[in-house]
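Action item from last meeting closed. Structure (401 res):
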């Protein structure tokens, strides 16, 4: 009998299996063939499991081995390649060199082409007037006046007759406070083109910075273009205006001089230099009987004299009228007092002996008594200017009763 649990032989009379300790069970109709068949199945199953396990392990080992071998081969191949490349560089000139890949030659050709284009562009720009002007504008906008000056000088090398480049260069000189350079350059330009308004603007700017207002006044001379003259407004003193204008007058006149509000006027009456004359403060009374030559000039707030103005006057006053006498003559038989009237500031002189009176004769101051007999009273009137009237003669016949 065998144990139903482990298959061990049971001893006769044992209740429990001496191998597994299980309760002994009696198996009826025991078949030796079945027991062998089961053992064969178990053994076959065990072998399959072992084969499967060994197969998986072997595959892993093979993969790992192949991977390592491949890596070694690649490293060896790279090492051999580097060695070959290094030894190729050391080969003698007689041995043939290996051909370089086409892409390296293409890149090298492209680089050469690009470098050639760059050199050509730089050469073209360096020999282009317009490009130099644009570079100068760019530098000037960044207040890099030194480089702007270099570009403008290069532009003038390319086009020495360019007026625009020289005006721009003068402006750069001003920004660098190199006023004398700017002044010389602008004056040269004016000699060539005296109608360029921009040149005048730049030159006035230079003179203003230098406070050379006399140069501004001198620059304005002989300019007839109205638009250019407008540039000088505020820097020049306008010539004085006369009221009335010069001429011959037969009456006493006063001459007024007018000018800009911020200007002073100086004048003379004898034709001498007005800059050395009197300062005008009010109307000028002209004396009669003389030829008067008035010269006048204005000086502005900068101390600059403007253009001079002058007028000639002749005051030929009329002779004063003869004095008025009451009575003016006749025959009288009773005593009479002779009364004389004359304009203010005038004097009357008279005589009784028939001679023409002068300023040395008797001056009338009060009514004159009429003398007896037939007498002639001669009178003259002298005005405040010393001008004498014609002689007035009055005949009186006084015969007392």
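Sequence:
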């Amino acid at each position: 009998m065998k144990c139903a649990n482990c298959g061990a032989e049971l001893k006769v009379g044992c209740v429990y299996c001496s191998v597994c300790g299980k309760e002994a069970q009696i198996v009826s109709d025991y078949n030796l063939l079945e027991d062998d068949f089961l053992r064969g199945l178990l053994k076959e199953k065990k072998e399959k499991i072992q084969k499967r396990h060994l197969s998986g392990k072997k595959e892993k080992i093979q993969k790992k081995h192949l991977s390592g071998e491949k890596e070694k081969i690649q490293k060896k191949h790279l090492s051999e390649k580097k060695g070959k490349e290094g030894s190729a560089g050391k080969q003698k000139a007689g041995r043939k060199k290996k051909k370089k890949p086409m892409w390296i030659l293409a890149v090298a050709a492209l680089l050469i082409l690009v470098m050639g284009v760059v050199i050509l562009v730089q050469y073209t720009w360096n020999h282009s007037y317009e490009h130099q002007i644009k570079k100068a504008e760019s530098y000037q906008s960044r207040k890099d006046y030194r480089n702007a000056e270099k570009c403008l000088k290069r532009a003038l090398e390319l086009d020495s007759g360019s007026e625009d480049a020289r005006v721009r260069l003068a402006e750069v000189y001003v920004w660098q406070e190199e006023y004398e350079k700017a002044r010389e350059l602008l004056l040269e330009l004016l000699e060539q083109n005296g109608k360029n308004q921009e040149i005048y603007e730049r030159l006035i700017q230079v003179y203003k910075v230098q406070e050379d207002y006399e140069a501004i006044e001198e620059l304005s001379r002989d300019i007839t273009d109205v638009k250019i003259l407008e540039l000088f407004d505020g820097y020049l003193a306008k010539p004085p205006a006369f009221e009335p204008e010069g001429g011959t007058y037969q009456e006493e006149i006063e001459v007024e001089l007018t000018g800009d509000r911020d200007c002073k006027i100086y004048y003379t009456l004898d034709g001498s230099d007005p800059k050395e004359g009197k300062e005008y403060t009010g109307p000028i009374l002209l004396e009669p009987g003389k030829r008067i030559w008035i010269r006048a000039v204005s000086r502005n707030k900068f101390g600059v004299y403007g253009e001079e103005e002058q007028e000639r006057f002749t005051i030929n006053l009329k002779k004063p009228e003869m004095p008025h006498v009451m009575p003016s003559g006749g025959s009288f038989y009773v005593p009479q007092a002779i009364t004389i009237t004359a304009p203010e500031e005038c004097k009357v002189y008279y005589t009784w002996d028939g001679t023409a009176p002068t300023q040395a004769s008797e001056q009338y101051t009060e009514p004159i008594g009429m003398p007896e007999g037939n007498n002639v009273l001669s009178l003259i009137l002298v005005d405040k200017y010393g001008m004498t009237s014609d002689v007035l003669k009055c005949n009186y016949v006084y015969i007392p009763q």
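Note appended to the action item: The first strand starts at residue 241 and ends at 243.
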